[in-house]
Write a structure and sequence with these properties.
The complex is a heterodimer. By secondary structure, chain A is an alpha/beta fold. Chain A has helices spanning 42-50, 71-75, 93-103, 108-121, 137-149, 167-182, 194-200, 218-224, 240-247, 272-283, 296-304, and strands at 2-13, 16-27, 31-35, 57-62, 65-66, 78-81, 155-159, 186-190, 203-208, 211-216, 228-235, 252-258, 261-267, 286-292. Helix content of chain A is 35%, strand content 29%. Chain B has helices at 2-13, 15-29, 41-66, 69-74, 80-110, 117-140, 145-162, 174-180, 184-196, 205-223. The longest helix of chain B has 31 residues, at 80-110. Classes of the chains: A alpha/beta, B mainly alpha.
Chain lengths: 314, 228
C-alpha cells in the first residue's frame, strides 16, 4: 500500500522555486532516507507533505486519499519529529507527552499507557518527572521523538532528529527508528549524516535545488557510479609534479588534496592503483594507499557536486 | 480542553507569574484615594496592572512560537482557531479572576467609596480581554522576544497617559484628545468614570462594546502570524 504520494508538486516562496515538480512515493513499512544539501528543499517537502504549508500546484496523497480531503484526520496518523527540539521547557517529560497525546485525542487510561510506552521506547522512564531544561542534548532529542510517537502514528517524519547529539544517544535514536519500523511504522528520515541513512534506510531519495535527482535502494544508487573507484594516497610530501603525474594517468578523472592525503577518482579496472603507487614512490615516501568502491557519499557527491555536511542548517 | 488545561498549568506553575497576579493586584487595592479620579487610586491604575499581566501572557505565546512548539501543535489534528481560543480562554480566566478578587477586596477595604463594584468588575473584565488581544497582536509583530518586551513595557504607560488614566483627557491638546479615542485605555477610563457615576449596563454599552471590538480586532491581527 502506498502511504504517501506527491505528484508534480511545485512550491514557490515569492519568486524562489523551492520544490520543482517533485514526485515521489512511499510504501507501507519502508524507511526512506531523504538526503539533500543545505537549501535543497527537504524541510519544505516535509511541511508540504503534512499539509503544514500549501503548495502552488501538484497533488499530495496520504494513506490513499488526497491530503485536502480530511486534513485533521490525516494529521492524526502522522508523527513529526521537528528539526529543533520543540517541547515545553516548563513541563516535565511526562507532562509534555500528556499534552501532545492529549491534542492527538488520547484520554484517560490509554493516554497514561501510551505516555509510559513512549517514555520506555526512548529510554526516559527514570527521567519522566524532570524538566527538559535539565536534560542533556541527547535526552532532549529523545523526548522530542517521544512527543511525535506518543499517539502511535502510522507514518513518522523525522527532520534531522540527531543533530548535535552524543554517539550514545544517536545509537539509541537509530535503534528506536528500527524498532518502530519493525512494529510496522513507515518512516521518512531526513539527515545530514550519510552513515545514518546507510544504517537504517531501505530506500533513498536525493533532493537537490528542489528536484529529486536520484531515488532507489542504496545498492541501486551506488551501482549508478560503479564505473568509478577512489584511491586514497597518503604521502610524506605533496608536490606539484606528483599531482601532475597523477592527473596525466589514463583513466584518472580527478585529483584532490586534503593535507598529505591525495584522493584520486579513476575508472574501475584501469589498473591505476599500481601506477599511482609507482608515481608516488618516485616522488617520495608513501605512507599509506588504498582503493575503495564508491559509497553513498560518493553517489551524493557525484550527483550534487556538494558534500552533504557543509555546515549550516537548511 | 487539553490546551486550556496546560496553559493554566504552565502559567500558574511559574513563581514569577504567581507574584505578578497576586502581589501587584493586592498592592493596588491598598493604594490611597485619588486626587481627581472618582475611585480609589488603585482602581485607576489597575488597568495598567492587567495590561502588564496580559503582556507576560503574550510572551509565553511568543516563546512557544520561537521554540517551535506552536509549529508542532500546527502539525497535530488541532485547528489554529482551537489553539487560540483555548489559550485565550485560559488567560482570560486568570485575568477575570484577578479582577474579581481585586474588586471584592476593594469593596472590603474601601466600602462605599468603591461605587458599583459589579459594574467595575464588568468593565475590568472587558478590558482584560482587550489587553489580552492587544498583547497577542503586539507579540505577533516581533521576531525577537527582548525587543517585544522592551517596547511593550514602554508602550503600556504611554497608552495609559493617552487614554486619560493618569490625567483627564480634557487636559491634553485637542489632537491628543482625538487620538485618545483610538486606544482601548480611553474606553477603559470612560467605563470606569461611567461606573463611578452610577451608570447602569445600558449606559456602559459604548465603552464595553468598543473594548470587545478592540479585542476581536487585536485577536484577528495576532492570529494572522504564520507559524513558520
Amino acid at each position: 500500500m502506498v502511504i504517501a504520494r506527491m505528484s508534480d508538486v511545485v512550491k514557490r516562496y515569492g519568486t524562489h522555486l523551492v520544490l520543482d515538480n517533485v514526485s515521489m512515493e512511499m510504501g507501507e513499512g519502508e524507511i526512506v532516507g531523504l538526503l539533500g544539501p543545505n537549501g535543497a528543499g527537504k524541510t519544505t517537502l516535509l511541511y508540504a507533505l503534512t499539509g503544514l504549508i500549501g503548495v502552488d500546484s501538484g497533488e499530495i496523497e496520504l494513506f490513499g486519499r488526497p491530503l485536502e480531503d480530511n486534513p485533521l484526520e490525516t494529521k492524526g496518523r502522522i508523527g513529526f519529529v521537528t528539526q529543533e527540539v520543540s517541547v515545553f521547557h516548563d513541563l516535565t517529560a511526562r507532562e509534555n507527552l500528556e499534552f501532545f497525546g492529549g491534542i492527538y485525542g488520547l484520554r484517560g487510561a490509554s493516554l497514561k499507557q501510551r505516555v509510559q510506552q513512549a517514555l520506555e521506547t526512548v529510554g526516559l522512564t527514570e527521567y519522566a518527572n524532570r524538566l527538559p531544561s535539565r536534560f542533556s542534548g541527547g535526552m532532549s532529542r529523545r523526548l522530542n521523538i517521544a512527543c511525535a510517537l506518543v499517539h502511535e502514528p502510522e507514518l513518522i517524519i523525522m527532520d534531522e532528529p540527531t543533530v548535535g547529539v552524543d554517539p550514545q544517544s544517536r545509537r539509541h535514536i537509530l535503534e528506536t527508528v528500527r524498532e518502530l519500523n519493525r512494529q510496522g511504522t513507515t518512516v521518512l528520515y531526513t539527515t545530514h549524516y550519510m552513515e545514518e541513512v546507510q544504517a537504517i534506510a531501505s530506500r533513498v531519495i536525493i533532493l537537490d535545488q528542489g528536484h529529486i535527482i536520484a531515488e532507489g535502494t542504496i545498492s541501486d544508487l551506488v551501482e549508478q557510479i560503479r564505473h568509478e573507484e577512489r584511491i586514497r594516497l597518503e604521502v610524506t610530501d605533496v608536490t606539484e609534479p606528483l599531482l601532475q603525474n597523477l592527473r596525466s594517468l589514463e583513466g584518472v578523472k580527478g585529483v584532490t588534496v586534503e593535507g598529505r592525503v591525495v584522493h584520486i577518482t579513476t575508472q574501475v579496472g584501469s589498473g591505476n592503483l599500481d601506477r599511482v603507487l609507482a608515481a608516488a614512490s618516485k616522488a617520495g615516501g608513501v605512507l599509506w594507499i588504498n582503493a575503495e568502491r564508491p559509497t553513498l557519499e560518493d553517489v551524493f557527491l557525484t550527483l550534487t557536486g556538494k558534500q552533504l555536511r557543509d555546515g549550516g542548517e537548511e | 480542553m487539553t490546551i486550556f488545561r496546560f496553559v493554566l498549568k504552565r502559567f500558574l506553575r511559574n513563581p514569577a507569574n504567581i507574584l505578578l497576579v497576586t502581589l501587584l493586584p493586592i498592592a493596588v487595592v491598598f493604594m490611597p484615594p485619588s486626587g481627581w479620579f472618582p475611585l480609589p487610586m488603585g482602581f485607576q491604575y489597575f488597568g495598567m496592572v492587567l495590561m502588564f499581566i496580559a503582556a507576560r501572557m503574550g510572551t509565553i505565546v511568543m516563546e512557544d512560537r520561537i521554540k517551535g512548539t506552536l509549529l508542532r501543535i500546527g502539525l497535530a489534528p488541532v485547528k489554529h482557531s482551537q489553539y487560540l481560543w483555548q489559550t485565550l480562554a485560559a488567560f482570560a480566566l486568570i485575568l477575570v479572576g484577578v479582577s474579581g478578587i481585586v474588586v471584592a477586596l476593594g469593596t472590603a477595604v474601601h466600602g462605599n467609596r468603591l461605587v458599583a463594584p459589579g459594574t467595575l468588575f464588568l468593565v475590568f473584565s472587558c478590558f482584560s480581554i482587550a489587553s489580552l488581544g492587544f498583547s497577542l497582536a503586539w507579540f505577533s509583530l516581533f521576531r525577537n522576544r527582548e525587543g517585544a518586551v522592551a517596547t511593550i513595557t514602554g508602550v503600556i504607560p504611554l497608552m495609559m497617559m493617552l487614554g486619560g488614566i493618569m490625567w483627564p483627557v480634557q487636559a491634553m491638546p485637542s489632537l491628543f484628545q482625538r487620538l485618545a479615542m483610538l486606544v482601548p485605555t480611553y474606553w477603559l477610563t470612560k467605563g470606569l468614570l461611567s461606573a463611578a457615576d452610577g451608570a447602569r449596563l445600558l449606559g456602559l454599552g459604548l465603552p464595553l462594546g468598543l473594548m470587545l471590538l478592540y479585542s476581536a480586532a487585536f485577536v484577528l491581527l495576532g492570529s494572522m502570524r504564520r507559524l513558520i
